[in-house]
């Protein structure tokens, strides 16, 4: 895997998860086992819906409930530890911010989710800034289409 470019205004560094406990406490929140389980599940699963996070967290503690997962995901997003994207018409999908900023590629045929590094969208970002005075949030960008495997199975067009 190629090395990521250093942080820049276009691709800011993301907060390290090793200090998430301090971030929680600094904002007046307690560190709870449920919060630890939810963050661990998001990091382990990659892109996951709240229901998927709940299932993973319940493997460790059956006492975790869906409302706790939603509240915790909202808090973790406020702290900059997770982000969400809408990859389907259903629940949002969450992922850890330890991954470099990326857009999402979703295959309409098989449902596979891929990641497109933000640097690959630099020409679009520059055009939006220059011509529209607009700063895009690439972590929320989802592009729907057909993946390479599905194209190979059916042929283009």
TrEMBL record:
Query: Which keywords fit this entry according to its UniProt record?
Result: DNA-binding, Metal-binding, Repressor, Transcription, Transcription regulation, Zinc
Q: Which residues bind Zn(2+)?
A: 107, 110, 147, 150
InterPro entries listed in its UniProt record: FUR, Fur_C, WH-like_DNA-bd_sf, WH_DNA-bd_sf
Per its Swiss-Prot or TrEMBL entry, what cofactor is needed? Zn(2+)
A single GO molecular-function term is: zinc ion binding
Per UniProt, the cofactor note for this protein states:
Binds 1 zinc ion per subunit.
Q: Domain of life of the organism in this record? A: Bacteria
- According to the UniProt entry, the coiled-coil residues are none
Single Gene Ontology BP annotation: negative regulation of DNA-templated transcription
Q: One Pfam family name from the record?
A: FUR
Query: Does Flavoprotein appear among the keywords?
Result: no
Which protein family is named in the record? Belongs to the Fur family.
In its UniProt entry, what is this protein called?
Transcriptional repressor
Q: Which organism is it from?
A: Nocardioides mesophilus
């Amino acid at each position: 895997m190629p090395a990521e470019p250093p942080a820049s205004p276009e691709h800011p560094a993301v907060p390290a998860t090793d200090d998430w406990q301090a971030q929680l406490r600094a904002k007046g929140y307690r560190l709870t086992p449920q919060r630890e389980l939810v963050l661990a599940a998001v990091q382990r699963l990659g892109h996951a819906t709240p229901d998927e996070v709940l299932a993973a967290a319940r493997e460790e503690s059956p006492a975790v409930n869906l409302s706790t997962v939603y509240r915790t995901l909202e808090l973790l997003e406020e702290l900059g530890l997770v982000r969400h994207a809408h990859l389907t018409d259903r629940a949002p999908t969450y992922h850890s911010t330890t991954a470099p900023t990326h857009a999402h590629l979703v295959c309409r045929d098989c449902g596979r989710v891929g990641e497109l590094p933000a640097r690959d969208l630099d020409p679009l970002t520059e055009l939006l800034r220059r011509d529209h005075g607009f700063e895009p949030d690439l972590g929320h960008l989802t592009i729907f289409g057909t993946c390479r495997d599905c194209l190979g199975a059916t042929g283009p067009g």
